[in-house]
Amino acid sequence: MSxxxxxxxxxxxxxxxxxxxxxxxxxxxxxVDRTKQPAGVPVPTRGMxxxxxxxxxxxxSERLDPRxxxxxxxxxxxxxxxxxxxxxxxxxxxxxxxxxxxTASEVGPKPAIR
Length: 114
Fold this sequence. Notes:
This protein is 25% helix and 21% strand. By secondary structure, the chain is an alpha+beta fold. A hairpin with a 3-residue loop joins strand 2 (77-81) and strand 3 (85-90). The N and C termini lie far apart (66 Å).
């Protein structure tokens, strides 16, 4: 073995020993992942029109001010808030639906910017 290889080998062995002695790994659920699909709640699907969403789910409890649209390449985003979820529209089509809260005890995201 060459002299320069011995320290690298020792460092690798030490790192392996430290990693094997570490506590078992645990993972947090990211808010982004958790909010994608509200459990047991039917939600609007991507591509539905505003008229389709309103016909199927009723009028939203709140229509937030639109954002964007300052330039042609920045489409206007509309946000409709329902009790269980918020729907995001690009122009007049659904681009995403996000759960407002997963459980009643959840300390969720900050309220939407109005």
